[in-house]
Specification:
mainly alpha, Rna Polymerase Sigma Factor, Chain: A, Arc Repressor Mutant, subunit A, globular
Length: about 160
């Protein structure tokens, strides 16, 4: 990959990569750090990664960096101080986007990731499998389960409006 192609990658993929990580982490600083680390890793392997594969490489690298960070944070967090009210709601919402974001937050990490990659970023099942290290059939199962949960959580559109 040339320097010009690397610069094109930064221009084309940095925003989408940032949105993907931010959607999962809900922390702007950590999301920025992960995006920057991903591009740094791409720069270190600029001679090995082809331009055509750069998007997949970036999303895979960012995903794995994010997972490593989450695992590290879980070991540090003290679960005795968790507020159960933080994970439940009893309010009525009228904003569908807000409801969808709340529903996505309640999904298990892997289901949220595959749904975001499929529905927000437009990756194919095969590409999602490569990014997450899952088989194509497992990706389909996680997407199906996640969508069923979202459908049940959101309920009928009449109840929302």
């Amino acid at each position: 990959m040339t320097v010009a192609e690397y610069n094109q990658c930064v221009e084309k993929y940095s925003d989408g990569l940032y949105r993907f990580i931010l959607k999962n982490l809900k922390d702007q600083e950590k999301a920025r750090d992960i995006v920057q680390d991903s591009f740094e890793k791409l720069w270190r392997k600029v001679a090995e990664v082809k331009y055509e594969k750069s998007k997949s490489y970036l999303f895979s690298t960012a995903y794995h960096t994010m997972i490593d960070g989450i695992r590290k944070d879980r070991r540090i967090e003290d679960f005795n101080h968790v507020n159960p009210e933080r994970y439940s709601h009893d309010e009525q919402y009228s904003d569908l986007q807000e409801i969808l974001h709340a529903a996505l937050d309640k999904l298990p990490e892997i289901q949220r990731t595959v749904i975001l990659l499929r529905d927000y970023e437009g990756y194919s099942y095969q590409e999602i499998g490569k990014i997450t290290g899952l088989g194509e059939s497992q990706v389909k199962v996680y997407i199906y389960r996640g969508r069923v949960f979202l459908k049940e959580y959101i309920g009928s559109l009449k109840a929302v409006i």
